[in-house]
Amino acid sequence: MEQEKDVTLSIHIEEDDTDTTARAVLDLRGDHFEATGRARRNPADPVKPVIGEELAIARALRKLESQITEAAEDKIERFLVDAD
Questions:
Q1: Is the dihedral of CA 41, 10, 71, 65 positive or negative?
Q2: What domains can be seen in the chain, in order of their start residue?
Q3: How many angstroms separate the CA atoms of 66 and 55, rounded?
Q4: DSSP letter string over the chain?
């Protein structure tokens, strides 16, 4: 039986002329995941906000991925221990 589910990921961005911070938040079936990514523009580079946003978001998502993977692996480990 196939089931379709929606999961919402929120990404909040704060930035100024040189720094961009992205905070990724995911709530999944009672588990809360939150990670922050940062990007800093070299003062010699032109102002291109989208690049900082992309880098900060990618870095936050990479950290979030690590947290979600670790949580899943912990659940698998507990399941295997409980199955014994």
A1: negative
A2: 9-83 (3.30.160.240)
A3: 17
A4: --------EEEEEEE-SSEEEEEEEEEETTEEEEEEEEEE--TTS---HHHHHHHHHHHHHHHHHHHHHHHHHHHHHHHHHHH-
pTM attached to this predicted model: 0.85
**Residues 49-74: tens digit of each pLDDT:** 799 999 999 999 999 999 999 999 99
Structure tokens at 15: 């930035």
The residue type found at 83 is A
